[in-house]
Amino acid sequence: MNAESRTRLNQTPEWTALAEHREEFAEAHLRELFERNPGRGAAYTLQVGDLHVDYSKHLVTDETLRLLRELAAATDVAGLRDAMFRGERINVTEDRAVLHTALRAPRDAVVEVDGENVVPAVHAVLDKMSGFSERVRSGEWTGHTGRRIKNVVNIGIGGSDLGPAMAYEVLRSFTDRDLTVRFVSNVDGADLHEAVRDLDPAETLFVIASKTFTTIETITNATSARDWLLTELKAGQEAVAQHFVALSTNAEKVADFGIDTANMFEFWDWVGGRYSFDSAIGLSLMLAIGPERFRELLDGFHLVDEHFRTAPAESNVPLLLGLLGVWYGNFFDAQSHAVLPYSHYLSKFTAYLQQLDMESNGKSVDRDGNPVEWQTGPVVWGTPGTNGQHAYYQLIHQGTKVIPADFIGFAEPVAELSDGLKAQHDLLMANFFAQTQALAFGKTAEEVRAEGVPEELVPHKTFAGNHPTTTILARELTPSVLGQLIALYEHKVFVQGAIWHIDSFDQWGVELGKVLAKRVEPALTEGADVPGLDESTKALVNRYRALRGR
Ligand code: F6P
């Protein structure tokens, strides 16, 4: 179905069939679904690469899954997917191809944009990154005074920060522990201050990551970092070359800033910011884990790309996860989606997914500019277990909201831990399994009574259960597994955007705030009378100036 002839999603027979089918779940309970089909726990699982995906604790039957796949077929998810992999300009509002999948393609692959194979250029940049990383890691690359680089500070924001910052945490046990790697994103000067206050500038390399090289936060922080470096080193502009490299699509702006474009690692406009972490934007991570581990990460991404591209609908994991999200968001009114990793190393994983999912699918007009009449992307949230269990799980267990959740866990603790700390892993994972069990099956009033609980407390101690979860289990958390996980979510987001018929690859909603911030700034600094300032904001600005003694 092409854009012109596409029937409004909520008017398709497939949508109507799902809405009718939803009625059958008015009284359904997971307890009953498991009673009816005891083999469900084993049957409702899929494998992709190292990821074992259990979706048995979802409010779905074979019929639900069939109807959801029919919706995917009617909305031509596979057609848009193939167009993406072929390098067609599926980002319609920016008229761009969407080819993050080319970033992890093997050297001999062919992916064409406007008739040109982009894979050689991708690998040329990867080779350049590898050479540079090796030189820094070996000590061959030195700072201006000849000292070895011991600190890397990545300055970027959004997609130019969240990916490498998240992955650096995830893969800490694979990093060179002698190298300090920090990430600065916020224009709040405190961020840069805290990042550099105990660093020796002579041993510090700044990686300025910005696709556009115009983002105000990044350019402001990069300028302050340059001032700090030159002041501390008592050096002139010539010191910049050894201490600053750039990751960008914009060579002109990089040169304007004073960074030698020989020290620029390039990527292209067909890489969206939130899909750029496996491009040159990954340089800080490569410096930390080395080129070989970085390649393992890319291979993990690629494995899931190939699965998404070729696996039949029945066993296609990103398709399944995307469809489950549509089921709850559009037919159960779920407003949010929790991602709950049971790994301390995944502490920034959900924050990374927030940008991936919410910047992609936080849209209210469709690809043709019509307002959508259906819910689009959910609020994505979550932090690692077991911490969340003692904070907000209460609301998931006994609150009034439908919150589908992904539980991500690993059989093996990270190899570097001592034997004593490794022994804690079973306890962590016991919580992991216990939570999805409690969420699905709850505890009935009869079970509570049987424990001798006084009648007045029975309603309080009863757990309704029936809360849907996906369990993703892998043997261990490696660079490849991280790549697999990210690609899984990238393609899940893609599937949902395709069904909702929105452009998942633009982000116009971010622009207004940026423009207004630039306009308001002179009111703060100079007390300028800024036209178009509303009465509330004007009063707040005046209060701010008074508090600052201006
Ligand atoms: O916040 C909007 C955004 O454009 C993101 O999509 C992007 O990742 C981020 O800003 C940073 O942009 P840049 O890499 O161009 O500095």
TrEMBL record:
Taxonomic placement: Bacteria, Bacillati, Actinomycetota, Actinomycetes, Kitasatosporales
Free-text function comment from the UniProt entry: Catalyzes the reversible isomerization of glucose-6-phosphate to fructose-6-phosphate.
Organism field: Streptomyces tauricus
Subcellular locations according to the entry: Cytoplasm
EC number: 5.3.1.9
HAMAP family (UniProt xref): G6P_isomerase
GO molecular function, a single term: glucose-6-phosphate isomerase activity
Catalytic residues (UniProt): E359 (proton donor), H390, K514
InterPro entries linked: G6P_Isomerase, G6P_Isomerase_C, Phosphoglucose_isomerase_CS, SIS_dom_sf, SIS_PGI_1, SIS_PGI_2
PROSITE patterns for this protein: P_GLUCOSE_ISOMERASE_1 (PS00765), P_GLUCOSE_ISOMERASE_2 (PS00174), P_GLUCOSE_ISOMERASE_3 (PS51463)
Catalytic activity: alpha-D-glucose 6-phosphate = beta-D-fructose 6-phosphate
PANTHER family in UniProt: GLUCOSE-6-PHOSPHATE ISOMERASE
Family affiliation: Belongs to the GPI family.
Source species, domain of life: Bacteria
Keywords for the protein's UniProt record, in alphabetical order: Cytoplasm, Gluconeogenesis, Glycolysis, Isomerase
Metabolic or biological pathway, per its Swiss-Prot or TrEMBL entry: Carbohydrate degradation; glycolysis; D-glyceraldehyde 3-phosphate and glycerone phosphate from D-glucose: step 2/4; Carbohydrate biosynthesis; gluconeogenesis
Pfam families: PGI
Protein name: Glucose-6-phosphate isomerase
NCBIfam families xref list: PRK00179.1 (NF001211)
